[in-house]
Amino acid sequence: MRQLFTEVYLVSNADKYKHFERWAATASDFPLENLINDGSTLPTNSLGSLADFELVLRVKNLWEQDVVVIAGDMLFQDCKFEMSQVLEFFRHKSDGDVAIYYEMHESESTLSRGIVEVCSETKRIMKFLEKPKSTQTNSRYASVVFYCFRPLTLQNVLSYLKSSEIQRPNFGSFMQWLINEEKVTVYGMKLPTGFQLIGDVGLKDYESWVKYFSKQAHSFEIKGPITKRAYARIGLIGNPSDGFFGKTISLSIKNFWAETTIEESPTLRLIPHPLNDPTEFGSLSDLHGISSKEGYQGGLRLLQATCKMFYHFCAHRGIALSRRNFTLSYDTNIPRQVGLAGSSAIVTATLKCLMEFYNLTESDLPKPLQPKFILEVEKEELMINAGLQDRVVQVYEGLIYMDFTRELMNKLGHGHYEYININWTELPRFFLTYLSNPSDSGKIHSDVSTRFHTGDKVVQQGMSDLASLTDETLVAINERRWNDVAKFMQKNFSLRRQMYGDAVLGKSNIKMIEIGQKHGVAVKFPGSGGAVLGLLNSDTVIDDLRKEYQSHGCVFVEVIPHIPQ
After folding, report:
1. Active-site residue, 390 included
2. Signal sequence: where (predicted)?
3. CA nearest to 122, candidates 178, 68, 176, 186
4. Rounded to two decimals, what is the model's pTM?
């Protein structure tokens, strides 16, 4: 850890100074000149922790340096987090200082700790209370003497020592003054470990605390692998993607899914999928054939990009991850390149695994922001053409109404997402048919996005009409008017065809639509292309419909809705 810092200093009282001197000289290769003796020998003539800190700053002339200060009588599990994460968060929050906190155990009293109230969005500490009564705050976040200070705050140390009437002032009283009265910006970073002040104790007391932390470490061990699943989705109504500030309704389905499994391991390993990430072939001819059909972009890149962005997110949100490695693997049966959200399903399942493995909850990554995280993995890291819609329904699951209007997106950073309360047995029968040899769904969007953002009236009016159609469909679903839903689905396709044109939609996609229309069923695209969704009516002869689709080289399945109860 020492290599992360240019210098490390240790302040001791005179009573224990010789012990540290011997330790530095014989066991640790610690520079003797970096040991500071504050001259005190008794509690009654001690300087106080803040004055000890000022002594180091003055003697070593550190006033223009960024400084990390940690209490020397504090025991914590440094093996459970990376110090580099703390420093990275400090660098990221360049407009303020950083204070470390942890979530107190239920047996701990607020009277023994400095308590912080932290803004969940910005991570700024809004209030610091030094050893308050439990009735003074609802927070269970305890701050300890573990701070990262910038030079301006070091000058505040001098100001406080000169003005304070407290005898032997400590860091708790200083931080309370700094945050509550001086309104200095201090960000909080949560560490995945507890802290104990060992103070003036003997070997027996120290060993008891080591034993306590050992038990704590075992309590956080994963007993076995964690497996999480994310389902494919069908877009029931709305605009074809969701970068147009529109509205959509989508349904998650049980037919297809992706799942990932994470398990603790000595090193971090990402396991290639034997079919989607082939690394061994029977011959060069086999490699040519598989690559020509499947391409080069399997799911392994999705795992790796999700892990990278997860670490980045936590580092910038003040969440220190425990120092644990894992093995991560995945499986999926979602057909590729037919617009059923196969890529985002793998990312979603991976995020769920990582959150549970590292004990993160929705307070760390709120549910409305999870789809945005998943989208950033795909768009920013992997340049996959995508929008929020798929990620929302895969995070929330079920039949979901989504409103992405510009005002909401600008104000909240996400849309309004609403569960549509319905039992899956109340839904009509849907079918899904898709191409056996599809194109890349990410290319189907063509130039519609550019036309929309440059003010093309046809596209802008079409997207507005689709948003209105979504609201009408929501009312029809709530009233169980399925014939009207069928009409709205047909209108949805007509509007899309008008905006995109047949050349972009493609002959094979249009052919699937025409087959459904021939059999008198409402049909539309459930995604960006390569598949068709249909609503079966009472007059539909499903066997005839299935056979005709199959005769044109399509796969035909009846939809099994996934609506968690």
Report:
1. yes
2. none
3. 186
4. 0.84
